[in-house]
């Protein structure tokens, strides 16, 4: 790898570190090519990516970035898992590590916050962006479905609902 390629790689890694919601650092010694491809596929499904890079180049790319604290984790055979969604990469890596003891989570970063392995596990337990959006939509849609159900109900039910609303407004 010549100097120009290294500079390009450092620039790419710098963009990854800057734009990612979460970066998880793990040791992957002993993973087969098929296992690594499986991890990559699972990460791609979740909207994230997996990157293996030379630790020295990754440390250079981390200089001046908000998540520079993870440079201490970059020793040995490390793999970087990252995603824009602050939860997706942590979820996938955590699930994969449960089923494959060769993948050892070292820690990571969520913005400026450094994460130890327990922190990555806690982030993985959080609901993803899609799950949060679905629950918010459910909360917003619930009153509308209640009103629609009431409109379809007999007139006596509508009258009782209106009187309840009137009582609440008066109180």
User: Element order, helices and strands?
Assistant: HEHEHEHEEHHH
Total separate domains: 2
* Secondary-structure content class: alpha+beta
Mean pLDDT: 85
Q: How would you characterize the overall build of this protein?
A:
With 171 residues, the chain is of the alpha+beta class. A hairpin with a 2-residue loop joins strand 4 and strand 5. The protein is built from 7 helices and 5 strands, in the order H-E-H-E-H-E-H-E-E-H-H-H. It folds into 2 domains: 3-126, Alpha-Beta Plaits, CATH 3.30.70; 130-170, no CATH class. The chain is elongated and about 80 Å long. Helix content is 58%, strand content 15%. Strands 2-3-1-4-5 form a 5-stranded antiparallel beta sheet.
């Amino acid at each position: 790898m010549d100097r120009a390629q290294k500079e390009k790689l450092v620039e790419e890694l710098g963009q990854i570190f800057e734009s990612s919601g979460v970066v998880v650092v793990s040791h992957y010694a002993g993973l087969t090519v098929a296992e690594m491809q499986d991890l990559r596929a699972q990460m791609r499904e979740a909207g994230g990516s997996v990157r293996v890079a030379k630790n020295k180049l990754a440390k250079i790319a981390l200089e001046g970035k908000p998540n520079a604290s993870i440079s201490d984790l970059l020793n040995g055979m490390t793999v970087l898992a990252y995603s824009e969604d602050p939860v997706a990469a942590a979820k996938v890596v955590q699930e994969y590590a449960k089923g494959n003891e060769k993948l050892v989570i070292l820690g990571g970063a969520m913005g400026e916050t450094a994460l130890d392995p327990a922190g990555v596990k806690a982030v993985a337990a959080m609901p993803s962006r899609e799950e949060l959006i679905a629950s918010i939509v459910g909360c917003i849609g619930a009153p509308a479905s209640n009103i629609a159900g009431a409109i379809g109900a007999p007139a006596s039910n509508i009258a009782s609902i209106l009187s309840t609303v009137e009582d609440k407004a008066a109180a």
